[in-house]
Design goal:
single chain, alpha+beta, nine-stranded mixed beta sheet, NUDIX_hydrolase_CS, NUDIX_hydrolase-like_dom_sf
Length: 171
């Protein structure tokens, strides 16, 4: 899905100034022959691999964003189990110089149905990967989100630093 209309409308007014947006990440899991598998998509714009993620639309609950994005990006139905991490991203600067910071809500989710496939023009490839063999290139921030979802802490982890500490002690 291209840039949402509400962001285009904001950009028409503020230009490339930093925007504060809500994001949602769904770490979609299923059991595989070699342990848990993670659904990952390769971005068409820069080739990096990510879990299912997207911008929360105005008035949309972040967990609903995850369900919507899983269908839009990979053609699968998922069930969101729980929120595991909430953290602010660093400033993201896009090739057109637009800047954004996201309050990301990372959810642990399980695959329900559907054969994973490229379902939009934002993704180049979609696939299931053993949790201990995630594809490259993938940002450290995305690896941390996936690691927290796999760890499945009793309480929501607050902040990127806390997530890194939690996952580094498990390595």
């Amino acid at each position: 899905m291209p840039t949402p209309d509400f962001i285009l409308d904001l950009r028409a007014k503020v230009g490339s100034m930093p925007l504060w947006l809500s994001g949602a990440t769904a770490v979609v899991l299923r059991e595989g022959a070699d342990g848990p598998e993670v659904l990952c998509v390769q971005r068409a714009d820069n080739g990096s691999w990510t879990a299912i993620c997207g911008v929360v639309d105005p008035g949309e609950d972040p967990h609903v964003t995850c369900v919507r994005e899983a269908a839009e990006e990979a053609g699968v139905e998922i069930e969101v189990e729980r929120l595991v991490l909430m953290a602010v991203t660093g400033t993201v600067t896009y090739p057109n110089a637009d800047q954004t910071n996201y309050l990301d809500h990372t959810f642990r989710a399980r695959w329900v149905s559907g054969e994973a496939h490229v379902a939009d023009d934002e993704s180049a490839t979609v696939g299931w990967f053993a949790a201990h063999r995630l594809p490259e290139p993938m940002s450290e921030q995305m690896r941390t989100r996936i690691a927290v979802a796999l760890y499945n802490p009793a309480d929501v982890v607050l902040g990127a630093e806390a997530a890194q500490r939690l996952t580094s002690t498990r390595a």
